[in-house]
Amino acid sequence: MRLDFWRHWSVRARLLCVTLIPLAYMFCTFVWYAYHSRLAEVREEMAERGPLVAKVLAQSSEFSLLTHRYDDLKLTVNGLLQSDASIDRIEVLDAQRHALVQALAPAPGRPDARYYEAPVLKRLMFVTMLAADGKPYRKDQPAASSSAVETMGYVRVTMSPSALLVKQTRRFYVELLVASLGLLVCALLAWQLSQGLNASLQASMQALRAADAEKRRLIRKVNTAVEDERKSIALEIHDELNATLIAARLEAQRIVDVSGEGEVRERAQSIIKLALGLYNSGRTLVRRLRPEVLDMLGLDGAVEEMVRHYDRAHAGCRYLFRADGDFARLESGIGISAYRIVQEALSNIAKHAHATQVTVALTLDGAGLRMEIADNGSGYDAALASAGIGIVGMRERVAAFEGRIDIATALGAGTRIAIFIPHAAPAS
């Protein structure tokens, strides 16, 4: 049996369970305690009344046993049985424990396994007589004492818990009824409370979902605006700055061509080198701002070129790339976000991971785009490290398209970033 079955329950069902389970536990505990308390009261009452009835009956039976008036004793016993429904059987025994009188209750119940017994004692009293001369007459007086005790028989009383159980059962039913009404009232209050909390929580969750959706739309718009601005800057650098650098280089080259050996020629050659360096830097900056291959070759081609660039730039680390799927049908917004995510991940690996092998994998299927960037570097402790701006930016880009990102890492175990972005992402 799965222990997480409750995860599919509604919020209202969870609130009801949280409220009703303790109430049900308390109700069951109270019922169990009340039931066993009533049974204990029956046992205590029988243990108290049994010896008392046996003792009183034994004291009142002395004369009947002494005079062998068993009919009078039987009448007394029957009257006691009729007046007390908790007595099941009364037996009067002689000194050898032979039955002299036996009587059963008119409506016998379930007899108790124990019985209570009291002895019937015959007490002999010796009276000191005075002789004619006024002196004590000592002929019939025992030497030891003036009285003696002799056991003539026994009275055995067997109690029946039936009548006592009926009385205690009625009390138990009253307690059970009161507890059931209390449980019902608590359940109704819990139902009303859960209904109110559920409505409030659903409204809060709806507002939160709306705010989250608005946040995702805002992130997509911001990313789009940033990419548009980058594209504009890249075009200005390409069309204005690089064109000016090319013109400056050509002018310097013309000076070199018309000048002889000397300082002017050397300065013109320096200008050519500086213009060429600035031009290459400008092209690199243009590629970072707006990769042309992303528009020409698609996401897989752009990422592959990026991976090759890192592989050439870092001799001590091997960068591998693989792709599967038709990336031509990928939405442009998802494509540029995925490219920026891979760009940020590879930049972090180059700066911090100290890895010797990095793998970038892209897969596009009917469900969506899947990306995996893994390295065998030093990793980090996710519980202690705080997320940097790069990681936060990656998470926001993924969240903007209702995707998910999982980062698995540990000290000395490398880092693996798995990203999934639904293919049918909502439009900006």
Automatic annotation (TrEMBL):
<feature type="transmembrane region" description="Helical">
    <location>
        <begin position="172"/>
        <end position="193"/>
    </location>
</feature>
<dbReference type="InterPro" id="IPR003594">
    <property type="entry name" value="HATPase_dom"/>
</dbReference>
<keyword id="KW-0472">Membrane</keyword>
<keyword id="KW-0808">Transferase</keyword>
<dbReference type="Pfam" id="PF07730">
    <property type="entry name" value="HisKA_3"/>
</dbReference>
<dbReference type="GO" id="GO:0016020">
    <property type="term" value="C:membrane"/>
</dbReference>
<keyword id="KW-0902">Two-component regulatory system</keyword>
<keyword id="KW-0418">Kinase</keyword>
<feature type="domain" description="Histidine kinase">
    <location>
        <begin position="340"/>
        <end position="425"/>
    </location>
</feature>
<dbReference type="GO" id="GO:0000155">
    <property type="term" value="F:phosphorelay sensor kinase activity"/>
</dbReference>
<dbReference type="InterPro" id="IPR011712">
    <property type="entry name" value="Sig_transdc_His_kin_sub3_dim/P"/>
</dbReference>
<keyword id="KW-1133">Transmembrane helix</keyword>
<dbReference type="InterPro" id="IPR005467">
    <property type="entry name" value="His_kinase_dom"/>
</dbReference>
<keyword id="KW-0812">Transmembrane</keyword>
<dbReference type="GO" id="GO:0046983">
    <property type="term" value="F:protein dimerization activity"/>
</dbReference>
<feature type="transmembrane region" description="Helical">
    <location>
        <begin position="12"/>
        <end position="35"/>
    </location>
</feature>
<protein>
    <submittedName>
        <fullName>Sensor histidine kinase</fullName>
    </submittedName>
</protein>
<dbReference type="InterPro" id="IPR050482">
    <property type="entry name" value="Sensor_HK_TwoCompSys"/>
</dbReference>
<dbReference type="InterPro" id="IPR036890">
    <property type="entry name" value="HATPase_C_sf"/>
</dbReference>
<dbReference type="Pfam" id="PF02518">
    <property type="entry name" value="HATPase_c"/>
</dbReference>
